Amino acid sequence: MSIDNEEGYAVNGMGKRVSLLTLPIEFEPLTAYHIGKLNNRTGQVELQFTKPTHIRALTYTLIEQIAAQSGVRNYTIAEEENKIVVTCRPFLLRFEEGSAGYELIEHAKRGLIKGELHELKQDYFFASTDRKVTLTLSEEEYQYLSEIALENKCTIEDLLRKNLLMG
Prior knowledge:
CATH class of the largest domain: Alpha Beta
Number of domains: 3
Distance between the termini: 40 Å
Largest sheet: 4 strands, antiparallel
Structural class: alpha+beta
Order of helices and strands: EEEHEHEEEHEEEHH
Number of helices: 5
Number of strands: 10
CATH topology of the largest domain: Phenol Hydroxylase P2 Protein
Strand content: 25-35%
Radius of gyration: 19 Å
């Protein structure tokens, strides 16, 4: 897939460019996606893979599994040079008995750069290693931080994270 000057296109198996606007009309995914599946787990899991050279690569199969199990709104895909980075909320991959999920899980293990994998019989839970901290602010403190965040064009969470981690 390539996005250039806000004109996106995907390349089909025959090498033909398909506009992203017509992609949902002309093609359908191999698995049904849940658009707004509820996932209130905190933290993030990050997977990184070398950009595949063919459309039947395990990376694309894994991304489809994440979309089907976790929900489309719970992950993002970024392309960096020759790598694909998938960032998502913690999720559970389920495989039916006798399915060929072993290669897919091994591929996911190799690509896991942030988070951890817990094996639960036939299920695999990709958990976050992020830790949540709760902070209570007075109304004046909150207003003050809101104004600073607005000036810096970021959220209060990003502002605090940036300033606390810088020392």
